[in-house]
Structure formats: C-alpha cells, structure tokens
Amino acid sequence: MSIAGIxxxxxxxxxxxxxxxxxxxxxxxxxxxxxxxxxxxEAGLTGRDG
Length: 50
Fold this sequence. Notes:
Helix content is about 65%, strand content about 0%. It has about 50 residues and is mostly helical. The protein is globular and about 25 Å long. The model has no long low-confidence stretch (mean pLDDT about 90).
C-alpha cells in the first residue's frame, strides 16, 4: 500500500504517515518498509496469526 493509501485509510496526512514509516523502519534496523512489515509479522505485531 502506498503512503497516500495508508494516510487515506487512517485519516492522516501523507507527511505524518511518511515520517512514522521512516521512523519505524529505522527503529527496526531494516532497509525498507517491506522488510519492516515482514519483521512485524514475524514478531506477531500485525494482529494476524503467523
């Protein structure tokens, strides 16, 4: 999902979403948001059965 799509779904402006995504990627020490999503999924943080 795009940054704009995430913002629309969460009712946030694109800049806020972009800043949060960048911060999350940095905190997880991964290279991009796909790797961040995989790390979150593997850690059980997505609210879905893993």
